[in-house]
Amino acid sequence: MSSSNETLTQRDQLQLGLNRFRLHIKSTLRQMQGEFNLTIPNRDLLVSGDETDEEYVENFEFIVYNWERILQEEMNNELNRRVLNSSPLAELEFWHERSIRITSILEQMKKDDVMKIIRVLTNIDSPSLSGFNNIKLQLQSYLLEATDNYKFLLTIDRHLKILQMEKSFQTIIHMLPNLMQGLKTIW
């Protein structure tokens, strides 16, 4: 009977691992398809233009203000997301997904076209960058929070899986001190 329970647990763990892998693949595909994208309405502006030309600078400022609005909206959407399932493993997955989504947004802000516009506006000390830079700092802070939460919860992931899938009460009882030690470390 012990062998049967062990096989069941291994099968459950494998299925859980496959489900998590599937979710990561879906998330990566969404990112690759560009669920979020900082757009540049007119790429010709990037090629030809002079920083002393007022219209050229105004176009860039308009683009940055538009990005600021889009980024603020995306950040608010992200902060309003909640864990759908109240299980500890769902919490772990939530922080991992948040980390991935925020990283994706920050990577958009590092694209060559975006950086060129930012450089031009930085060179002329444009006030249009203050909101954009504030949002970037907030996103970096949220990324740090999400990454830290994920890393800390990952330290007790094995115990949480046992707690969720184990059928034997004795196994759970033996695992609890290790789980509590992990929680103390996090706390």
Automatic annotation (TrEMBL):
Q: Which GO terms describe its biological process?
A: microtubule-based movement
- Residues spanning the signal sequence: none
One GO MF term attached to the UniProt entry: dynein light intermediate chain binding
One Gene Ontology cellular component term attached to this UniProt record is: axonemal dynein complex
Q: Which InterPro entries match?
A: DHC, Dynein_heavy_tail
Provide the Dynein heavy chain tail domain boundaries. 58-187
| Annotated family | Belongs to the dynein heavy chain family.
Q: This chain belongs to which protein, by name? A: Dynein heavy chain tail domain-containing protein
> In which organism is this protein found?
Rotaria magnacalcarata
